[in-house]
Structure formats: structure tokens, C-alpha cells
Description:
Oligomer: heterodimer
CATH class of the domain at 414-652 in chain A: Alpha Beta
Distance between the termini of chain A: 99 Å
Number of helices of chain A: 16
Largest interface: A-B, 33 and 28 residues
CATH class of the largest domain in chain B: Alpha Beta
Shape of chain A: rod-shaped
Shape of chain B: globular
Structural class of chain B: alpha/beta
CATH architecture of the domain at 414-652 in chain A: 4-Layer Sandwich
CATH topology of the domain at 414-652 in chain A: Phosphatase 2c, domain 1
CATH topology of the largest domain in chain B: D-Maltodextrin-Binding Protein, domain 2
Helix content of chain B: 40-55%
Strand content of chain B: 15-25%
Order of helices and strands of chain B: HHEHHEHEHEEEHEHEHEEHHHHHHH
Distance between the termini of chain B: 25 Å
Amino acid sequence: MLKKNSIVTKLVLVIALFSSVIFAVTLGYNYFRSRVMLQDELESNARNLAMSLVNRVETQLTAVAKVTEGVAGALETSKYTEPQLHSLLRATVENNPEIYGSAIAFEPYAFSAQSRLYAPYYYRENGKIALSRLEKSYQFVPYLYWDWYQIPRELGKLEWSEPYFDEGAGNILMSTCSVPFYEEINGDKQLKGIVSADISLDALTEYISSVKILKTGYAALLSRNGMILAHPMKGSIMNETFFSIAEARQDAYLRELGKKMIRGESGFVHYTSLVGVRSWMYYAPIASAGWTLAVVFPEAELLENVGKLSMTMAAMGFTGILLLTLAVIYIAKTIIKPLQLLTVATDEIASGNFDVDLPIVHSNDEVGVLTHDFQVMQESLKEYIKNLTETTAAKERIQSELKMATNIQASLLPRLFPPFPNHPEFDIYASMVPAKEVGGDFYDFFFIDDKNLCFLIADVSDKGVPAALYMMVAKTLLKTEGQRLGEPDKILFSVNNILASDNESCMFTTVFCAILDVTTGEVRFANAGHNPPLIIDSQGVRYLSLKPGLMLGPIMETVYETERVTLKPGDTLFLYTDGVTEARSRKDDLYGESQLREALQLAPKEELSDMIHCISEALVRHAGGAPQSDDITMLAIRMTKDNASMNHAGKGG
Amino acid sequence: MSKMWHKNRLQRKKSSIIAVMSVLFMACVLARPVGAAEVPLKNASFMPLWGSQAQFAGYYVALDKGIYARHGIDLKILKAGPGHTPTQALEEGAADFAVVWLTTALLHRAAGKELVNLAQIIQRSALMLVSKKTAGIKTIADMDGKKVGLWEGDVSISPRTLFANHRIKVREVRQSHTVNLFLRGGIDVTSAMWFNEYHTILDSGIDPEELNVIFLRDWGMNFIEDGIYAMEKTLRNDPALAAAFVNASLEGWRYAFEHPDEALDIVIKYMREDHLPANRMHQKWMLDRMRDLMMPVNPQGSFGSLTEQDYEAVGRAMQRNGLIESYPDYSTFSWKPDAQEK
Lengths: 653, 342
């Protein structure tokens, strides 16, 4: 439907692409920021939750530790008899419901010199307080070598034991708080024994296990050895340590994390939880026992809402981009449609049909303006073409008229050579090439009587139609006056007076007028401001020296003088206008008189037409393509060598 | 692994008719179950040194996979651990076979009890002294004046002997079967078995790089531990039973090493039955280390047998340190089931 290069396609592609990219970036940033914000919020939430759990555990542990320390303190400060000892111990268990059982275990012979070991233990059994004697109940390994006794003994301070399962108490998870107590003998502090208090961790671990975080998040408790005490993985409780799980998973990071935890550090980490889910965990130490409490937030659940929001936004964005695309297509098409119509119309105009109707656009937008401009252009073009047609018609008319004028002018000059076949005594040849359609130069020759041939060459000032008209007048006058007067000076005098008398246009003409006696070769000539002709005879080529004379037209009563020269048989007289000597090359060099003389020396002499054509070609070569600036006219006349023809001419004369 | 054992067995039967013998042996082994189906199984009892764990994987696997039954034995594995002493059980006749340390056996022998070694399971001593690097203890001499955790009983013969030889005095602290005293800093040095306590320490978050370990065997105290023992009387009564028990037990071990996952499953099953916490990674470590420890050390050694060299070394060391006045001949003390079978 849409062309690959169409503006609509481009617009849709670019807008859809860019808005998609912008939207994707926005969405991505939003997701990322939401995550970060959620994470920040999570960290404080997780810390608060962990700390509240830690406090709960701590409260219980601290209370028990206080009681135990209290008993130890009591034993250090006063001497207890056996019944007093028993009632103290019994009361301790009775008054502290969180204490499962409590023992006072003595160092060997510390209670009495008679018996080596002595360790009464009061504990709860079926809701009652029962007594047990640890020196008897620990059958194989004396109580001296159990962790609850040995560790505080060696360290000399309160210790919470690693949690253990107590089978005797119904397989419940226990931890024992043990406090050493001393006796001062001669200022020497000597260990007397250990006071211990057992607590059940079941309630605590159950409470920790019951903490629900999101759907599958959880709280966990680790011992000082990294042993799992509370965790949703029930099978791992009291069986796996954080490190054995790390070992099984060959997860060095998990091991490092575990080390941080048992070192009593706290932190907020992103990790793969023991249940194998990418999660956030906050862990904090339970300082008194050296345990670690952790709260675990599964990342996927945490980000569920952000994910949902992002999906909704993505869906909205997608729909938005789709609508935007449709809108762009619609708008682009409304813009493109008049343009397409305009294109069709302009195609028509381009093919020359200016009358085609342009589409009507009502909008005032760029397309409207463009259409309006096209309308104006169409009108202007129509007008212009109309004018052009008219002008061209006028010009063509003038052209054809000028062509006719050229023909007329050309037909006025004698063009038939040889013009006088019955006069072999002489040869004559002439040519005139006008610079424009019509020229101001002319030549003429005619017989005045049987033996006198009048020949002349003239150059009217100016060129073109005025010169041609003036030339017509001058030529007609010269011919009529020439036939009437028969002498060059008289002819020129008369014609000058006629031309000058009514010369409002201030035009003038140079004329070289000569009359040849064809029987003798004598030439009588007068010059009205024309270039001197050349004589080609046995001595070579030379310019005829002339008396200066004023051109015809400007001044009345100008007097001209007849001069004479005799042409021997074979001698040639060469007349020309200044279009020859002033022919310009491309570099504006004039052809010049000396070049003309040299050209004539080299030109073929046999036929006058060849000579003149040779000079014409020389001029064309000199011009080298430069436009002809002036009419070029040449006339050559020669007395023939042939005596027979002389005789014949004589007979004819 | 199996190839090596096979090679060892062949080495024991160096003869020109190795092939024939092998065929006969295989036939013998294969024929047994057929016979077992017809002949009623002989009752026998066995006491390990400690509760069920991978240290005794071979016996549990042999029992579970019916290897003992195939060898004609209806075996009962007795409860072990605190309060149960294998030597006592043997001497009282409560157990036919038991796992006993070489040192313990020699002490009892010196006291006139006729204990006989049927097989030597552990070929290199696994006992080690472990300290935290922060304590700066690198040699035995460094332990002078330090608190050293020692187990009660024969277990501590080698460290005590070593301290005496080095003329150092340590502050002995009797240690329990947990490593917590050491972990909490109650003692500077702890005794540990490579296959057990050492790994417990690692699994409590202490890296090997944070520990200095001294293997007793590296200090001339290769007091090789677990061996299978019986009273001479028991052997006299039914040498075939003893041979069958040893062979079945060693076969159980081989099977365990060839199928470690299955072996772990079996061991853990028995541990659960005994209500013992069963950490698979720990048992895996134990089984792997048992394999290391059971590999014969020198060319004369073979899987499950006590070499004269090792025996003499332990006997001499104990004699020199005044623990025993004399020790029996190797041939008297070490009974070879193979010889009986032939």
C-alpha cells in the first residue's frame, strides 16, 4: 500500500522507532529506579524485621543468662549447704518458666572432699520439677568433659552452648547457658564449678519459622558454627551448616557469606538463598549467643508488583505507540494526499498542459500555500507562454520580412557573372556579404554607352535596415546620374547634392566611382572618402594613390576630381570596402591593408571569382569564428589579354 | 580403582598358572551364593569403633548389598560408640569381629589377650593435631606449654609419645567428641581425625588456610588405626567364617568406592536408623578420605592387609616408648584370610 520511499512510511518508521526507543528507555529507567527504591526500602524493612526478631531472641537469652549469673553470683558470695543448694536450684527452675532445667556442677572434690563429682540437675518433666544427678546420669563421659561444662570452664566466662537435641527431654532443641563460679582461697580465685541453665529453642525456632515474608520468604537462625537452627528446609535443621551447604553447592560466595555471619557481622546481600532462589537477605548477629538471624526476601516476589506495573506500562505504551502510528499515518496521509494530487497536476503542467485544474485546498497550512503558489505560477506561466508566442510570431514576421529585404537587396546588385558575355575585353567579379540581414555596402556596374563601363563600390555609414534604405537611394541615384552625366566627378557632385539636400538622418556614404573605357583600358575615377583600391599588374600589387574626397551626404556642393589610370591587358583593379581591412579577429586584431596586399599577391590570378573567394576565405580564417562586424564587399575588374576579344570588342564598340 | 585391586590380587598369587588360579578363584566366588542358598547362613556379629558413619561404609554397604549373605554370613552390626568398647566386646565374646586400632590391639596383646589382625583397613594414620594459624603453632615443639586437646584412651598414645620424644610439656585437656572447645578458643590445639573432625572444623566456617595441621604420621608416628580383629579362639573355631567376613568386608569397601553415591545413601540410611545427624557432605568427605587412607602406601602393601613393615614400625615405637614390653611376631599377629582359603 505504502511505497518504500514515501513520506508516510518514513514518518511512521521514524516516529514509531523513536517513540519506542524513548518509551523503552523510560520504562527501563523506571523499572531500574523502582528496583533501587524498593531495595532501599527493603533494606530498612529487612533490618527492622531482623532487629525485632533479634531482640526477641536476645530478650529471652539475656533473661536466662541473668538468672544463671545470679545463681553463680549467689554461690560465690555465700556458702550453701546441700539442701540450700537444692532449693536454690529448684526455685530457679520453678520461677523461670523459660528455663527447662538447671544444674550446678562442681569441679572434682569442690563440693565435698568425700565425693569426686557432684552435680544436681533440676528439670521439668511432665509439668513437674524433677531432680537428676548428672554425676550418675552421664554414664560414659563424665559431665566434666561436656561442652556445656568444659568451654566456660576453659574460657572462664558465660557461654551459650551449640544447640543440641536432648533426647531425654523428648528430642527438643536445647541450648545451655553456662556460667563458671569461683571461690576465693587466700586471695586466689579458684574455679568451683559451673552453673548451667537449659532452654528449649523450639518455641524460638517455631516463632522464627512462622515469620512469613511475602509468599515464600522466610526468617532463619544459624548457630555460632553456622548450624541451621531454624529454616524452611526442615531436613537441614541441626544437620547441615551454612558451610556444608556451600560445600555441596561448591559456592565460594556462600561460604564467605557464612563466615561473615558467624563472625557477628550484619549486612544486606543479594544472593541465591539456600532454597536456591535469588533473594535479598538481611542478617544480624544475636550477640549474646553468637548466633545469626537472617530474613530472606525472594527477589521475584519482591519485584512482582514492579514487574506487573512495568508490564502494564509496556502494554499501555505499546497501545499508545500503535495509536500514535495510526495518527501519524492519518495526518501524513491528509498532508500527502493534496501533495499527491498536486504532483499529478504538476506532472500535467510539466508535460505542457497549463490548463489543468489544481486541487482545491481549503487548509491554510504549507500545502495550502504551496498549492496557491502553484496556482500563481501556473497563471504566470500561461501569461508568459502567451506573450512568448506573440513575441515569437512578431519576430518571425520581421525575420521573414528581413529575409525578403535581404533577397531584394541581393537582387538589386548585379549577381550574374560574367555580366556582359559579349564584352570579352574585360572581366569583372563582385561579392557582397552583409553583416546583418541587410547591408549598407553595395557595388554596381553598368554601361553608360557602348564602350564606357561605369563601376563603383560604396559603403553607407551605419548598418542594417536604415543603411539598406539609404543604400537603395544612393545606388538608384548613382545609376541614374551615372548614365546621365557619364563622368565620375560630375556623377559624385550631382549625387552628393541630391543626398545632402535632404539629409535629415545625417547619413552618408563613401563611394569610389570609376568609368572604364573598355577599348583602351583607361579608367577615369573619382573618390568620395572611400578606401583606395589596389592595382595588380606586372609590377605586383599596390594601392592606388588617390586624392582625398569627401564622402557623399554631409555637405552640399562638394567638388570631386576625376583622375585617370590605364589598365594594360592583364592588369586588375581590386575595390573593397572597409569591412575587408577592418575585419576583426577574436583578439580584435584588424585584418589591415598590408595583409590584404599580401593576400592578393598570393591569391590565384586566373579567375577573378577565385581571387575574391580566396580573400573571403582568408577573412574567415582571420576572424576565427568572431562574428562579422561589418559588410564585406569586394569588386575586381581586369582587362583581358586576349587581343581577339579586344578586336571583337572593338568591332562591337 | 578396581583394576588396581585386581592387579594386587594377581600379585599375591604369583605363579605360572595365574590364569588357572584366577578362574578357580572366580568360580569359588561365584559358586558361593548357590551354596549360600542351600547352606544356612552362619551367624556373626561385628562391632565398629564408633556409631554408623562413612568411616565404616564398607561394612554397611556389604551388609546392605547382601555381600555378607553371599559369603554365607548373617551379620549383625552391633551398636557402637560411647559405652561400647570393641576390644571388650571381643574379649567377652559379645562380638566375633571388631574394628580396633593397631596400638590398642598391641596393648591388649601385651596384656595377654589373643587379638589377631585379620585385615588392616587404614594404611596411613589419619590422626592430626590442628591449631589456628593465629596461635602460631607450626611444629610439635611449638606446642610446649599450650593447651592441647587429647581424646581419652589409646587414641592419644601417638601424640603423647611424640610430646615425650620432643621433651615438651603440653597442658593436656581432655576433649569431647565435638570440636566446639577448639572453635571457641578453649584449647590451642585439638586432636582430629582427618576424615572426621578436621572436616567438621572446615564446616564450621574455618578455612584450611586459617589452620596449621600436623599429621602424626609425618612425625614418625604412623600408628595406623582401623583394622579388623578377632580373638584367636574365634579363628580356630571357624577360619572360613573369618576369611569370608574379611573378604566380604573388603568387597563391601571396594563396592563403596566404586559407587560412592550409593554407599553414602546406605550409610546415611543406617545413621538415620540410629538417630544420628547425617550430613551428606560430611559423610562424603569421610568416604573420600577413607579411600585415601586405605590406598596401599608402599609396593609391598595391598588393599586391606597389614604389612610387616608397618607392623614392626608401630611395635618398635611402642616398645621403645615403654608402652609395651614386647610384641608378637608378625606372622602370629597377622592372620591372612587368603592363606586360609587356599
